[in-house]
Write a structure and sequence with these properties.
With 392 residues, the protein is of the alpha/beta class. It has helices at residues 12-15, 73-89, 129-133, 135-146, 207-216, 231-238, 251-264, 278-284, 307-324, 342-356, and strands at 2-6, 20-22, 26-30, 38-42, 48-54, 59-65, 99-104, 113-118, 121-126, 152-155, 172-175, 182-185, 188-191, 221-225, 243-248, 271-275, 292-295, 329-335, 360-367, 385-391. It has 3 domains: 2-65, PUA domain (Archaeosine Trna-guanine Transglycosylase, Chain: A, domain 4, Roll), CATH 2.30.130; 73-186, Transcription Regulator spoIIAA, CATH 3.30.750; 203-391, Rossmann fold. It is built from 10 helices and 20 strands.
Length: 392
Amino acid sequence: MTTIHLRRGKEESLRRFHPWIFSGAVHHIDGQPAEGDLVRVVTSEGQYIATGHWQIGSITVRVLTFDDEPVDALFWQRRLSVAYQARQAMGLCQQHNNTFRLVHGEGDNLPGLIIDIYGPTAVMQAHSVGMHMCRQEIAEALQQVMGERVRNIFYKSETTLPFKAGLGQENGFLLGGSPENVAVENGLKFHIDWLRGQKTGFFVDQRDNRSLLEHYSNGRRVLNMFCYTGGFSVYAMRGGAQLVHSVDSSAKAVELVNQNVALNFAGDQRHEAFAEDAFKYLERMQPHQYDLIILDPPAFAKHKDALHNALKGYTRLNAKAFEKIQPGGILFTFSCSQAVSKEQFRMAVFTAAAQSGRRVRILHQLHQPADHPINIYHPEGEYLKGLVLYVE
């Protein structure tokens, strides 16, 4: 195994269990590791400190373990078992809820790996070449840990692996191959499009926030912007909404939300979906047409260079919602951009409120759920931010 020697003093973040080693921390390398190889990391004095996956870029090593141990089948089984036990402790593995995130990268001490569970199917996603190279071992370990609970493992990393690695990865089943794609979240059924859908096919991270929305929906006229699979729409309908309108620029998303509504509320006339640009829809809709609006856009900033334009986008979007919402209305507004901090997002929403001249109160400050844990030594893992606002 290749050995990475750190510069003097660069081991301090690792002593605090931060799972990334940046290229500037490397003094020299014994050998020539290929991207995805396991490497052993030592201090400037030659003392072992970590083992991880080597990669090309500013993050040179993603740390798998700070113990001098083999990364083998038993290692993967131990890590997945700990993750599964945590989800069981969270009360997520229930008959009325078979949709949850089993592995959340650094949050579960498995940087570069995502595994979402949808009923009997696990969808695995690699964000590093190292995890891609280990996919079969991980799938076998997952089957060992989950037993009969998981009968299919779908690997979906075509768009998440580094482009320059040139792996030519195609999505497909590593185990099983059932076409059944209906999963249950808090008693509601959803079609999961892991073949062509965004992320792993469903935004599992909004589960708790959808439940909160249900609490506020009774008797309200609801607008779900950037609806994708319609999770918020379905919860609003169960919550007793007077009407629910879902908007997404993608015609495929609109088709999927209609399928999910029919799956739970067949023949219910309260719901209608529109394939239209969000800003255009907000511009043309009537003032006071809705008294509950959800703004859950895709990431406006995927890296720091896009931060300025992203904050302008959040301000513009929220300002239009403040302008149009019925007095006494509730606004659920989110950012899933990791590059945008809680403070920056809140300032963008504050600016939008000030521009609109409306009186606004914060009712809730929202974040990602427990099955998307944040490693206390890796605060960068906090990405989902949300506010629930009362607009006078």
